[in-house]
Amino acid sequence: MKLLYKILLWNIVIVAVCLGVGGYSFVNFVFETSLERETKQALDESSILQFAFETAALNIPSRYDMLQDTTIEEIGYSLEHGGQNNSTRMLHISDEERNTLYLGQGFGVDEGFLQQIPKDGKIYQLREVNGRYYIHTGCKMEALDRVLHLETMKDITQIYEERKEGFEVYRKVILFVLVIASVIMYLICRWLTKPIRLLTKATHKMTEGDYSYRAKVISNDEMGQLTDDFNMMAANLEQNINMLENEIQAREEFIAAFAHELKTPLTAIIGYADMLRSRKMDEEKAFVSANYIFTEGKRLEAMAFRLLDIIVTKRLDIEKQKIDTEKIFDYLKEIYGEYDRVKIRCHYEKATIKVESDLLKSVMINLVDNACKASDEGGKVEIIGKRLEQGYLFSVKDYGMGIPEEECDKITNAFYMVDKSRSRSRNGAGLGLALCVEILRLHNSELHIESKVGEGSRFSFLIPWEEVSEHEVLD
Ligand code: ADP
After folding, report:
1. For the residues 198-220, what does the mean pLDDT come to?
2. Which residue from 15, 238, 369, 473 has the least number of CB within 10 angstroms?
3. What is the pLDDT of residue 84?
4. Structural domains for the chain
5. Ligand 1 binding site (Cβ under 6 Å of any ligand atom)
């Protein structure tokens, strides 16, 4: 059953019970009050009748100072009718032996009650006779020489009928109130449960794969807070799923590129090897073929090492040490000192940074190699080191071919090459920059690329300053 209907049903039950109990108590209270009033009246009446009887008996002249049965009957009759014929009062007068001396019309004699009448005081009971209700009172009275029993019966059917009528009216009122209350409660419940319906709709949308759907916030209460939290959770989920999808796509692209990079040299190697084993060639041709197999094999080997480097770097937990930047630049000068295809110039400011020095050198070599490859013969490459407020900035600048703007974002992806044939001819496999990015990530740094086609490129990264203790200094 829906929550809306559950709340509605419980509300209706509670309202019905409350109205029922309240109404029953009210009608009953009115009845009890009337009954109490009637009882009091009946007892008062009994006292008055007792007094009236005794007075009347005294005033009747009697020859022997004795009260005759016929006189008692006469007095009884006149008291019962009280001068009117439509009296609701009935009397029963009996003598010492409880023999009836006067019996009003319709009075039902109750022997048990008669016997319970005390010497002093009064008793009463409620009775139902032939579908009508009465207050039956009883007392003893003394007149002249006689002790008599006086019983009265007062018709109170009216208040029972009023109670019945009260219940009837109240039943109709409850029914009417319940119908109106149910309609109002239904509307309120629908309004209160609307956020739940909106949330349910959002979860269904998400189950169907629509992670961008958000539930509408329509209140500032706990439900509004829950909807906000749900939307936040959905946003995080969407972000994570997008990230996972991007990662899966990147992996697929990586595998496709890897397979492609393997296929090209392998096809050449297999082709040349087949030629060498199946035909006789002159020495020069055989050398060219064997040389091709050798260089392509070397390229594959280099690619395998680079891939291994990237994988290892991804899982590496590096131990950084303090090093003077001068040492890094000295190392680069040493490596590229004999290089004469392009002029390599170093400008740097001295500083001490905290890095994994071998990995940082590897980044610099990759960048300088790329800069040299991109430069024409006799071109210029600058390696710059600068102290900045946030850290130490390394830059490698060339004045070579440059990179088209739309390619700048992609060249750090594994196996990505702007000019494939040119890169391959220079033993490239599009893995160098991917490795640089991984190494810089371990140093909390990023690679920045600025380039213009025909004017050259500038690759730079910032190594943030870090506090170091003396024992960490690298000699
Ligand atoms: P590779 O091993 O092929 O050099 P990289 O990842 O180092 O692979 O570089 C990816 C591609 O980025 C290169 O193939 C090249 O096309 C381009 N590239 C890198 N550095 C430069 C540069 N300084 N000038 C122009 N193009 C560059």
Report:
1. 91
2. 473
3. 55
4. 3-164 (3.30.450.20), 211-315 (1.10.287.130), 316-474 (3.30.565.10)
5. 366, 370-371, 374, 398, 400-401, 403, 411, 416-419, 423, 428-434, 457
